[in-house]
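Task: fold both queries, return tokens.
Query 1:
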Amino acid sequence: QVQLVESGGGLARPGDSLRLSCAASGGSFNSFSLAWFRQAPGKEREFVAGSRWTGGATRYADFGQGRFTFSKDRLRNSVLLQMNSLRPEDTAVYYCAAGYNFRQPELVDPDRYEYWGQGTQVTVSS
């Protein structure tokens, strides 16, 4: 049973950067697709960025293109989300998700993921 633990959230000012980390315990990310989602109060959970652990291109939501970077730390069996130029509308709980490999177009579908972290709060405010 894979467990996901996120870290790195917090309070930031507009224009600041934060880096989120998601580490796996109870197993490795081999054969998984991984992604970050976020959910703001009163809104549905939405895809942020994701990729297969082994190969495949990274997919980003439009709002993250050029500002967010999804990466994999194979040594620590974790995935990272570097968020730059943060905006107040980026305020949300950010979740790490993992599911057994599926096609890239399906990365955006939260129903494809079997495992979820507990979430980490990101608040962007001046």
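Query 1 returned. Query 2:
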Amino acid sequence: QVQLVESGGGLVQAGGSLRLSCAASGRTASSYAVAWFRQTPRKERAFVAAIRWTGGSTYYADSVKGRFTISSDNARNTVSLQMNSLKAEDTAVYYCAADNGASGEIGYSPHDYEYWGQGTQVTVSS
């Protein structure tokens, strides 16, 4: 089991920045990839960004490329999402997710991830 706890959400004006953090505990060594998803009411969770726990290549949704940066600190079992130039359409609940390491690949679907945090609200006012 892997437990994930997000922090850092809040209210920000359009054009501003926020940094989300995700702290992992438990059997993190068994997990290969960690990702951020976001969800708005009446919509499915959408992929935002992903990275291997050990770092390296990063993967982003087209809508956030150039504005968001995902990073991982494997020694501290944390992953962060730096969000710059925020837009009203970035408003959502953001979730941290970790896989079970079985595929050894980065996943882009919520179904690729077994462990989830409770979510943190990000609201961008226009």
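Both queries returned. Flag for query 2: The first strand starts at residue 2 and ends at 7.
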